[in-house]
Design a protein that fits this description.
Length: about 280
């Protein structure tokens, strides 16, 4: 019998809805310092009409509503979007406080209609994909959102800071190497120095200022760290190219330097945000 040359890959052992819950319960909170810094700088509060592109499971929107803002959100991942609905639209659950939130699937077609604007603040804290070909926020979505904002309203883009200040870089190099063994992991970087500015200009926006925020990744144990990082979606291609067990094994090895004596995992990171105007 002729042996097959096709490698049989085991699918990920974690379902998409579980990944979304891991994102909501483990990973998304790591970005709270970023959300808070942006809201504080732009004085988000009563009177703010916020449109959040790539709103994830809704934590940033929840923080904005706590400040008195009225919020709209779009999200490509249907499972994260459902988590956001559970957080922001509790459907009259006992003791729940109603929020003024509207949620839609991501993409240019998911951006609110002109009658919903004008918005006084637009944020894109989620993954940014300049070509618009990935599951993150792309130029067409930014262009449409900026067109619904008040003239001169801030549009905030966010991404990784310098790779030498991001401990998570090592973990994401694992994802890149497993997804494409022919790539050079040494050349992998979370983001370039001018990536946010280039994306803003491609969307017709004028960069007006930026900031850096420390967002350390802290986990109760190694298992939580692996689940949290896998929930980002950055390892999906690696799992398709190999299998979930292999990815988890190599990710655990990459995390070993950040494993502390008490079993917790601590990874210092810096995120960067750009404030632009339409």
């Amino acid at each position: 019998m002729t042996p097959t040359l096709a490698r049989r890959h085991r699918p990920s052992s974690t379902s998409p809805d579980t990944r979304a819950r891991d994102w909501a319960e483990i990973q998304e909170r790591m970005l709270v310092p970023l959300y808070e810094a942006v809201y504080e700088r732009l004085e988000t509060g009563p009177g703010t009409r916020l449109l959040a592109l790539g709103c994830g499971s809704g934590l940033a929107l929840l923080m904005a509503t706590a400040r008195g803002a009225e919020v709209w959100g779009t999200e490509h991942d249907p499972y994260r979007l459902e988590m956001a609905r559970c957080r922001l639209l509790p459907d009259g659950a006992p003791g729940a406080s109603p929020t003024r939130a509207r949620l839609r699937p991501g993409g240019p077609e998911g951006v609110p209609q002109p009658g919903d604007g004008p918005f006084t603040l637009v944020t894109a804290f989620g993954p940014l994909c300049p070509t618009g070909g990935g599951p993150g926020v792309g130029v067409p979505e930014l262009v449409r959102a900026a067109g619904l904002a008040e003239r001169g309203a801030p549009v905030v883009l966010a991404g990784w800071g310098p790779p030498e200040r991001c401990a998570a870089s090592g973990a994401f190099r694992v994802a890149a190497r497993l997804a494409d063994p022919m790539c050079a992991p040494a050349r992998w970087r979370p983001s370039g120095r001018d990536d946010l500015e280039e994306l803003a200009r491609a969307a017709g926006l004028r960069p007006a200022g930026s900031g850096r925020v420390a967002c350390p990744y802290g986990y109760a144990d190694l298992d939580s760290a692996i689940r949290g990082l896998l929930s980002t979606g950055a390892f999906d291609a690696a799992e398709r190219a190999t299998d979930g067990e292999q990815v988890a094994k190599e990710l655990a090895e990459a995390l070993h330097p950040y494993l502390r004596h008490d079993g917790t995992v601590w990874m210092p990171n810096v995120f960067r945000y750009l404030v632009a105007h339409n």
